[in-house]
Every structure is written in structure tokens, then in C-alpha cells.
Amino acid sequence: MPMLDLGPAATAVARVVAGVRDDQLSAPTPCEGTSVAGVLGHLAGLAYAFRMAAEKTPVDGTASTDPAHLPADWRTYVPAQLDALAAAWRDPAAHEGATAAGGVEMPAEVAAVVALDEVVVHGWDLAVATGQPYAVDDASAEACRAFADSFGDDRPPGLYGPRVPVPDGAPALDRLLGATGRHPGWRPPA
Question: Which residues does the UniProt record annotate as the domain Mycothiol-dependent maleylpyruvate isomerase metal-binding (predicted)?
Fold first, then answer.
């Protein structure tokens, strides 16, 4: 498996984070029951957990979607965590052996894909919820889609929603979104 570069996705999501307005923190996202603040907090936690996984120093617990866990300095904290995540996975040793994140042990090269998937998909969740443009490279979207597709229709509870049909010729990001149970045309309620 080729070594993934999480840098472009982390940079794209950091741009989205910079564009989130305070009045949007309570807005809904495509993650049912999770607000913009909840997704931001989740991103901060997962970026830290998967950075520690890259460094082979796993931490206990999962990345919460409770808006109360959003750090007060989220505008700088979340992008810093995303940068640190990308930097940690640039080390070839991060992709070797086994590691754990969120209490789940896995091969390190799989953990890199899971981290990328979390960043790419939740970046889209934030972008669409806050009305911002969002783009990821096709290679990242395809790597994440292959991961999502690896579960078939027998998905672990809470991992993804039911598949959403998306045409084969749709953009790579749209196909990934459908594979994760998201409607590529989702927009916040008026």
C-alpha cells in the first residue's frame, strides 16, 4: 500500500475551519444530531488520537461529538492538530507495524487510511454545513472510498450510514460520500 499524504486534506479542512463563523456553531451537519461545533470537536479529538497512533503512543477514548468538548481556542487548535496529524504520518515508521486509535487496534497502514477518511469526510460535513467550497484530490477520495467499500453492506454500527446510490461517473468525492451514507447534495435546512 503506498504511503498516504494527509497534508493536502488537512490543509483543505483547516481552510474550512477558518471560514466557520461563530453563529454557525449550532448549525446542523450531515451527521444527524451533530452540530458544527460537535464536528469541530470531533475533528480536534480524532486528529490528536490518530497523530498519537502514528507516533505509536495511542490514547484511550474516542473523539467526542459533544459540542461542550470543543476547545475555546478551536480556531487555532483544530488547524494545529490537523497539521500535526499530517506531519506525524509523513514519517515512514508511522506506517509500519500495528497501532491503535479510539481503542481499536489495527495495522498502522490501515490507521493512516482511517485518519484520512475521517479528515476528508468530516471536512466535507463542515464545509457543506457552513456553505463553503471544499475539494480534495481524487487519490485521497478514492483511497477513502476503497476503505468505506471494504465493509460492504455489513458495516460496524455507527461507522457509516446506509449507502447512498451515486452514479459511477460522479466525482470521486461524491462517490466517497455515497459510500459513507451521505447524500452529496445535502444542504442545511432553510
Answer: 8-127
